[in-house]
């Protein structure tokens, strides 16, 4: 699999450094096709997004062979009981029109169930060969430790919100401790970074966009794979163009200092108690 920027290894998985998110995209099929044609090879979907059919259509429309695409999808927290889990997986296969996922995630930890109660279902899908790799999303450090301990197959990622306004040092340290990649959703804080003066100053100096600087800050940390989303073909291409420049240690530190207590943008009512 040839992906711009290469891949990050974790427990046998080779995860392309830059992914393309598909949540809340009205034209997900067209956007996915545009992303793949632009060079993305990591596509992130989810049952909960309601876009799996469009994502599958976009993959086929792109002309990129299935074997070259690292495809992720997720089982929602409402579907973690064994029979519901199996049904969710079958529905995702049908909607995406594929016969395997490269990565299957638990989308959110269940507020009602213990982590150990659904790790067997996740591991079973990997043993069946339906998912080549497995992981979790939106897990705190405590829940991640529980998941790793309870799962009989290795977890390769924890997908969490991560951007300069949100301090995820504890979660990143936990991922590193378990040999996992941190996949960064909302890497541009849903547009909140755009007017930031520090990012703007660095972007101007680099002749790059604010989004490119924020994404570069993430990938330059070495084991973070951001998954920005956009429906605009120009921005889709721009977000991938982050491998031809580097940030200095001082610039990295200035961006890290932007973290703030109210930085989180994805915080639904069923969220766990965050680190």
Can you give keywords for this protein?
275 residues; alpha/beta; TIM Barrel; eight-stranded parallel sheet; two-stranded antiparallel ribbon; 10 helices; 10 strands; globular
In words, what does this structure look like?
The chain has one domain (7-191, 221-231): TIM Barrel (Alpha-Beta Barrel). It is globular. The model has no long low-confidence stretch (mean pLDDT 97). It has helices at residues 28-38, 52-62, 82-96, 116-128, 141-150, 169-177, 197-206, 210-219, 233-240, 249-256; strands at 7-10, 13-16, 20-21, 42-44, 70-75, 101-106, 131-137, 155-161, 181-185, 224-226. Helix 5 links the parallel strand 7 (131-137) and strand 8. Helices cover 38% and strands 17% of the residues. It has 275 residues and is α/β, with parallel strands linked by helices. The protein has an eight-stranded parallel β-sheet with strand order 3-4-5-6-7-8-9-10. Strands 1-2 form a two-stranded antiparallel sheet. The chain has ten helices and ten strands. Helix 2 (52-62) runs parallel beside helix 3. It starts with 6 loop residues before the first strand and ends in a 19-residue tail after the last helix.
